[in-house]
Every structure is written in structure tokens, then in C-alpha cells.
Amino acid sequence: MNIIVFGGDGFCGWPTALHLSNVGHDVVIVDNFSRRNIDNELGCESLTPIQPMRTRLSAWKECSRRNIDFIKLDLAVDYYQLIGVLCDVRPDAVIHFAEQRSAPYSMKSSCQKRYTVNNNVNATNNLLSAVVESGLDIHVVHLGTMGVYGYGSAGIKIPEGYLKIKIDSESGEQLENEILYPVKPGSIYHMTKTQDQLMFSFYNTNDGIRVTDLHQGIVWGTQTNETTMDERLINRFDYDGDYGTVLNRFLMQAAMKYPLTVHGTGGQARAFIHIQDTVKCIELALRSPPAHNDRVKIYNQMTEVYKVRDLAKLISEKFDVPVDYITNPRKEAAENELSVDNRLFLSEGLSPITLEHGLLQEVAGIARRYMDRCDISRIPCTSLWVNREQNEGLEPSVS
Amino acid sequence: MNIIVFGGDGFCGWPTALHLSNVGHDVVIVDNFSRRNIDNELGCESLTPIQPMRTRLSAWKECSRRNIDFIKLDLAVDYYQLIGVLCDVRPDAVIHFAEQRSAPYSMKSSCQKRYTVNNNVNATNNLLSAVVESGLDIHVVHLGTMGVYGYGSAGIKIPEGYLKIKIDSESGEQLENEILYPVKPGSIYHMTKTQDQLMFSFYNTNDGIRVTDLHQGIVWGTQTNETTMDERLINRFDYDGDYGTVLNRFLMQAAMKYPLTVHGTGGQARAFIHIQDTVKCIELALRSPPAHNDRVKIYNQMTEVYKVRDLAKLISEKFDVPVDYITNPRKEAAENELSVDNRLFLSEGLSPITLEHGLLQEVAGIARRYMDRCDISRIPCTSLWVNREQNEGLEPSVS
Fold first, then answer.
1. A156/B114 Cβ within 8 A
2. DSSP category for residue B232
3. By CB count within 10 A, which of B5, B60, B78, B187 is most buried?
4. Which residues of A touch B205 (CB under 8 A)?
């Protein structure tokens, strides 16, 4: 297949591009380096020494004898260049990672709120509009998030996209219907993903665009079979308070022998998936596109659910570091339960890597190995969901 | 109250600004003249001779002895100027009309699709973000549309925003819940209004912003008590295929003694409201803001439901013109039923103007009076929902 990976320089995009190239697809990466530019803005950098795109691609050619092309383009802005790229590459599928993906970053101030909405919504709309305009039959695969559901399932096993409901009609009769699972986004970032869903649904209904939307859990792990082939291929590892997910921050703290900082009670349940499983899932999603005239196909791309305090306990015990409970910067419930249906990927052959078995490798292979590059002061999350005054009234809880 | 009307130069915004000024509020109009600029783009103009803003405002001062201020600002772009305006005016409420509001225009080509998404989503997000940043307690009133529901209610009386549902839980027990009524937007324009809903919900939940969202039907009529006070205050009347709603196009055709062009079978039901009732509803919505900590308050701002063929029949008989059935440019069901709950406004004192009684005035007072300004060639809708080839396969239906 000819495949374009939008956002192919990022944490998920880069290993996905390599994996798809490795299994035989012809891959083109499109990126505007926004993630590296935000590192500059925040004064952070990946713990792992990621290389410039040119170095990455020549290393890949050396290792695999395979070529990946690169095009610098801003998906939210460069629409006519995008049309040119689609007509030139004539992709069978495009993978859309080209969105600002940090919830804390999206809540930092009005500047980041506005950037996240503008970038994410326009990127998705440009892509869909360009696919229509190109007249090509392109399968659009998008990285969504489990977070659109607001991390609460209250007695429901979260289905893969669609929820069966019953409604009382005017005549009193009970009607059955199936709807997109109702959303409850917890940040501006998550909100943009709920807006994406509406665009996928519209372009699917109006223009027959085939779309697969992957509602992903929190991705952990750094390396995949491909990124370990050469150190120049190494993937990003973010541990800062904005882009570092809760697990990466714990791993870094464990490696540095600092107490693990749990926001609030740690009572919140989150869905997780290893980066190696992410790239496998995308390969599987490409193999089973929705049929023409099918609705948007939605997978829950996650493999395990953990409460944050249990995750802290696991790491605390394995690496002998204490746990610190601190005030939660987010506005969210202190405790929640989460139950997720992920039968689609399991039925298509996914065999998950578990946190229990993969953590040691992460701490030893990444966090300890590169700990001299760590700026410990960057680990705490400094973005607040509401202003300081209001925040003091909040229940402490967990991210 | 201090009130800012965003989009106060437009078809709904202008009579709203005058009405609110007339009942004693201090009104500031903010607009970027995008509607007049789109007239230039399309080579159309209002049938009625609308005046430049400066003329409108001085005429209003002469008639009413009241002052309305005007600020030129692009809500989707000029964020820091917007913050300045909020801090300067310190409004108690803002009315948000500042969106591209034509469904056919939003489907014209990728250029108009992208403009509509970019303008509407960023305008709403900028407004909400600025209200948060200002720290002021501002009631946000937004003009939404009944069209978010896709014009089908299939046995359900469409409630005012929220739908009670039942879901089977994991344990088999039936759970009750209340959700935003599921959306089914029929155009890019309508899609942006569904995205707006998600932003209102998020900023309401996260930041406690008080929001009233008015899900409006198709507005008909041209004049209000205020716009008739002086001809220089006259409101827009759009009759072209993009901005002219179905009723205005019929009225124009009736005045010109041309056959009424019904798209498809005319079997689609639509909700309607007179512009005089629109401005009354906004006044009522301002009087009853949601309480602090309330969810978004949603009204169905409509007064009557008609099938398009019945509307054509009404006008055809009243004005003795024939009806022509032509292919529908939209992708939509040929027939639908529509039942809408609008008890909120009725209970707050709205006494609707009906189509049956108000139509004659429109044809005589507006369409016939200004018919020498009409370009009959602009009446047909030339925007297609899908490209020509695909369109030929569609069921003819109605707009």
C-alpha cells in the first residue's frame, strides 16, 4: 500500500511509519515539526536523543534498505500543497496523527487553548476536505482517544464507538437506537477529539469517506522492534508535566529515586497500551478497512486498565521509591471506574504487552540509560484547568 | 444591561441589536462585515437597500434617541482586541451571531467548507476563551440551529436540548441517563453548530460559563417594530440560492410571478420562526439566564412546522403561481416528520406570528416593493452537496 503518515515525526507517528515501512508498505511522512517546536517553547526536550528527520531517514535506509519520503507541510494551513501531495502520492490510506495531543498543554493559557482548537479542527477538516476534492478512494485512519468519554463508565462497558439506547417516543412506545457513545471531554485537547468525531461522521455520511477512528488509551513504552534497530532511530520519551504521561513521569521519578507524585487520591482509572501494540493496531486497522458505505469504524485501542494509585504502587514496589500525594491540577472526579470493550483488535490478532512485564525494560533501557539528560524540575505539571483561586476549592484527584 | 451583539450587522443580529437597545439595554455591535463581503464574493445583494453601518446607527439615534456603539473586529481572528473590548465594555451578556450561517454556501467547494469550519469554530472558541480570561461574569447567548438534529424526529418530540435515555448496563440492569440530543448535521455549516455545542458544554463544565444556546428554526420575515421605524434601518432580505431560505425564495418567485421551485418532493418538514419572534426570544433568554452552576440552557427557538410542499401550496394559492418540482442539490431523506417541543419560550411569554397571517405583508411590503432590485437568475441553488456524478444518483428531495 501507499501510505501517508501525517504527524510522522511524533511519538506515535514515527514508530508507526517505521513499522509500516518494515512490513512492506510505501510510506511518506508529512510533518511540520510542531512537536519539536513546542519543546522549544516549553524549554523541554525528549529524554532520548531523537535525531533530525534527515538523520532518522538515512539511518532507516541503512538498516532496512527501504526508503521513506518526507514532506514538510502544515496540515492545518497548507491546503493546496496537501491536495498536490495526495494527487502525487495517490495513497491507499492516510494515518492522521497531526494534532496537538497534550491535555495539560491545551489548558495552559488561552494561547494554547486557541492553538489546539485551531490546529486540530482545521487539520482534520483540511484532510477530509482534501480527500473528497482529490476524488481518490483513500482510507482515513485517525488517532482518537479514550478520553472523549471522560474516563467514567458507571456500570457500562464502553463499547467500540456506538451505544445502543432506548428512548420513550411521543406515543409512549420504547424506541431502540444506536448512537455515538456520548462524550464528556476533560480538556480542550479532548474536546477537539470529540469535534473530530463529528467531522468523521459527516464526511462519511455525505461523501462516503471510509474512516477508522482509533480511541487510544495512554501510550506507554518508548521503543518498538524498528526503533531499536539503530540508536539514531530512537523514539521520543517525554517526561515533562505537559507531554509526559503519568506513567513516564513515574518511570523517570523511579529512575532518579525521587518520590512518585500522584495527583490527588490516585483513584482514577485509565486505559493503557504499549507503543509496540499501537503500531501493531494501526497495521491491523489498515488490513480491515470499513467497507464502502459502512459507517465510521471505531476501535478501542487499549489493552489494560489501571488506577493511577495501583500503577504507583506497582512501580514503587518494583523500584523501591516512595509515593507522594499532591493536589490535582485537573478538574475531574477523584475516583472513577473504567471498563472497556476491546474485542475488535483482540479478534484481529493483537497479543498485548502488559505493564507488569514491560516496565522493567523501560526503566532500565530508557529512564536509567538517559537519566543524565533529565531535568527533574520539569516533571511536575504546572498547567491548571481553572485559575488558582478556583483551583483551591477543588477536590484533589489524579492525572 | 450592557450587551455586546457579535455579528450585529447581519440578518438576525441587526434587528436584535435595535430591539435590545429599544427596550433599554446599552448595546455595542461587533462585526467584521463578513456577510456584506460574501455578497461581494457571490455577486449578490440584499433585495432591501440596507445602509452602511454608520448610516444605520445615526438613523437609529435620530429615531430612538439611543446610542449604539460599533466596533469592527473579526471574532475568529482578533483575540487580543476582543479581550480589550470585553474589559472595556464589561458586558452582562453577549449575543453570538458571528458565524457563517448558510448551508449551501458551506457546501460550495473546499474553500467555503474550510472558511466555515475555521470561522465558526474559532469564533466560538475565542469568545468562550476570552470570557474565561476576562474573569467577568458574562452570560453567553448563542444562535444555534434546529438543523443540528438533521430534520428527523421519527416518533420523538425533539426536546429542548437534552434527551432521557435508557442503557443496558454490564450487569443487565437498565440505567437511566440524560444526554445532549444526538446530532445528525446535514451540511458543513450545521456540523460547525454541533461542534459549538461541545465547546459550550466543555466551558460550562470546566469554567462555569453560563451559556444559553438557541436552537433556531428557519427565520422568515424581514422587518421588526424597530427596523420599520425608518427606511435607513431596513433589514436584509436574501433571496439567492445560497443565503435565501426556502421561504424567501418562494416569496420572491411569487412576487415576480415565477413558478415556485420545490427541491424534490417537498416532503421535508422544517421548523420556522418570524424575525420579530427571534428578537423577542433573545430578549426573553436574556431575562432568564441559567443559574451559576447550571448546565447549558437550550431552547428550541421555533414556532411552527411546515412541510416544504405545504408551504409552496400556501403561497401558490395565495398568490396564484404554479409550483415546479426540481432535483434536490442536498443529500438528505426525501420525506421526514418533525415534532418539536418549544414550551420554554411559550411559558416565558412568547406569542408567535404565524406564516398563515404574516406572509401577505412580506410579499406586499418587501418582495413586491423592492422587486426592481431582484436578479431572478440568482434564485436557484447552485451549491451541490456531492459532486455532479454522484448527485445524479440521488433521490430528489427538498430544501
1. no
2. G
3. B5
4. 331
Nearest to B338 by CA among B184, B188, B214: B184
Residue B331's closest chain A neighbor by CA?
A206
DSSP 3-state of A4: strand
Angle among Cα B365, B368, B373 to the nearest 5 degrees reads 115
Q: Distance from B370 to chain A by nearest Cα, in Å?
A: 37
d(CA B163, CA B167): 13
- Topology of the domain comprising B2-392: Rossmann fold (3.40.50)
Cell of A260: 512518585
With contact defined as beta carbons under 8 Å apart, do B320 and B256 qualify?
A: no
Q: Which residues from chain A sit within 8 angstroms of residue B199, using beta carbons?
A: 191
- Specify the fold of A2-236+272-311+333-356: Rossmann fold (3.40.50)
Nearest to A398 by CA among A100, A385, A304, A243: A385
Q: What is the pTM of this model?
A: 0.95
List, run by run, the mean pLDDT of 10-residue segments along chain B (399 residues).
98 98 98 97 95 98 98 98 98 98 96 98 98 98 91 79 92 90 94 98 97 96 96 96 89 90 89 96 98 97 94 92 87 84 94 88 86 89 73 41
Q: Considering only CB atoms, which chain A residues are within 8 Å of B385? A: 206
- The amino acid occupying position B331 is K
Pick the residue from chain A with its C-alpha nearest to B386: A207
Identity of the residue in A170, A194, A202 whose CB atom sits nearest the CB atom of B157:
A170
Domain spans in chain A, listed from the N-terminal domain onward: 2-236+272-311+333-356
Contact A255, A367 (CB under 8 A): yes
Identify the residue whose cell numbers are 463581503.
B37
d(CA B1, CA B24): 8
**Confidence band for A365, pLDDT divided at 50, 70 and 90:** confident
Do the Cβ atoms of A114 and B198 come within 8 Å? no
To the query of whether residue A189 is one of the catalytic residues in this protein, the response is yes
Q: Provide the shortest C-alpha distance from residue A114 to chain B (in Å).
A: 7
ipTM above 0.90, yes or no: yes
Q: What is the C-alpha to C-alpha distance for residues B292 and B290, in angstroms, rounded to an integer?
A: 7
Distance from CA of B210 to the nearest CA of A (A): 15
Instruction: Give the C-alpha separation, A179 to A201, whole Å.
Output: 11
Find, in chain A, the residue whose alpha carbon is nearest to that of B184. Answer: A202
**Angle, in degrees to the nearest 10, between helices A79-89 and A110-134:** 40
Contacts of B336 by beta carbon, 8 Å cutoff, 6+ apart: B151, B152, B153, B267, B268, B269
Predicted confidence at residue B393, as pLDDT, reads 44
Residue A322, judged by CB atoms within 10 A of its CB (0-12, 13-18, 19+), counts as exposed
Would you call A156 and B165 a contact, using CB atoms and an 8 Å cutoff? Answer: no
Residue of B nearest to A112 (CA): B129
Distance from CA of B190 to the nearest CA of A (A): 10
Q: What is the pLDDT of residue B108?
A: 96
* Pairing mode of beta strands A162-168, A174-180: antiparallel
